[in-house]
């Protein structure tokens, strides 16, 4: 049976390395790296994410600036806040929590963020940097997935990688990262004719679909590494609520070489990578050497 990839432990180790780097930054720059998190409206899941991000920021020794705006905030008011954060020298990273309320143009807001403070990596300039192999910011979830794969497999060159899902947040940047590692990359999506046939060839499977247990155990090639990005809330038989991934964990774990659990796999790495990106942004802004993270 598969080795379970302990995302919690990998994330804790990464956060510890970031905290070391932060201490070095503070000693050199005389201030803390700063992360501004903007939340518009009262979406309960988003509120939980923002609270966790702010707590982890403080635990890493960085300054967290939380901006909570009412759900009826106008695009212009939000853009004005982004402009102020862009101009604020104590702010190294800016994160606007998604989704934004429907009346706000998400693209316009994300494009307004200074690309060098765009620690989520969603600005088109950073998307282009990733695609062309320039230093930029890589979205936290796929970056965390790549770190787990490198820690598990070492060299990825030549491996067959199948990414299921093509979102701008996970699937597409994941495919770019695996290509950069010299994998042979296939991206499967909602219009793919036979997803199972593609997954059966894969040495690496990354599932970012958003459908509980979409990937079946008998699709997995024996020994493959399986990274499950999905976070799906389902009703359990005992009446409670539970979190499950996009992969049938029990079925896949019986044949895979390694697999991430949900929860405790990719999720914790996402937030640790946000801390990493914020430290890197701070180091780049004061022209300090970038720590190896
Ligand atoms: P999304 O809804 O934007 O994209 C889903 C993708 O799945 C689409 O590209 C679509 O083409 C593909 N898809 C849908 N139905 C399919 C089918 N039948 N066959 C093949 N492909 C199909 O979602 P997302 O933002 O990429 O997130 C995916 C999942 O990952 C969600 O469960 C989300 O909650 C989770 N997520 C987790 C983290 C984390 O930190 N662990 C971060 C982001 C997203």
Automatic annotation (TrEMBL):
Pathways per UniProt: One-carbon metabolism; tetrahydrofolate interconversion
Oligomeric and partner information: Homodimer.
InterPro entries in the record: Aminoacid_DH-like_N_sf, NAD(P)-bd_dom_sf, THF_DH/CycHdrlase, THF_DH/CycHdrlase_cat_dom, THF_DH/CycHdrlase_CS, THF_DH/CycHdrlase_NAD-bd_dom
Biological role: Catalyzes the oxidation of 5,10-methylenetetrahydrofolate to 5,10-methenyltetrahydrofolate and then the hydrolysis of 5,10-methenyltetrahydrofolate to 10-formyltetrahydrofolate.
Domain Tetrahydrofolate dehydrogenase/cyclohydrolase catalytic: 5-120
UniProt: NADP(+) binding residues: 165-167, 231
GO terms for biological process, alphabetical: L-histidine biosynthetic process; methionine biosynthetic process; purine nucleotide biosynthetic process; tetrahydrofolate interconversion
Catalytic activity, reaction form: (6R)-5,10-methylene-5,6,7,8-tetrahydrofolate + NADP(+) = (6R)-5,10-methenyltetrahydrofolate + NADPH; (6R)-5,10-methenyltetrahydrofolate + H2O = (6R)-10-formyltetrahydrofolate + H(+)
Keywords linked to the UniProt accession: Amino-acid biosynthesis, Histidine biosynthesis, Hydrolase, Methionine biosynthesis, Multifunctional enzyme, NADP, One-carbon metabolism, Oxidoreductase, Purine biosynthesis
Molecular functions per Gene Ontology: methenyltetrahydrofolate cyclohydrolase activity; methylenetetrahydrofolate dehydrogenase (NADP+) activity
SUPFAM superfamilies linked to this entry: Aminoacid dehydrogenase-like, N-terminal domain, NAD(P)-binding Rossmann-fold domains
EC number: 1.5.1.5, 3.5.4.9
GO cellular component terms, A-Z: cytosol
Protein's name according to its UniProt entry: Bifunctional protein FolD
Domain (Tetrahydrofolate dehydrogenase/cyclohydrolase NAD(P)-binding): residue spans on this chain: 139-284
CDD domains assigned: NAD_bind_m-THF_DH_Cyclohyd (cd01080)
Lineage top rank: taxon: Bacteria
Family: Belongs to the tetrahydrofolate dehydrogenase/cyclohydrolase family.
Keyword Nucleus: no
Pfam families: THF_DHG_CYH, THF_DHG_CYH_C
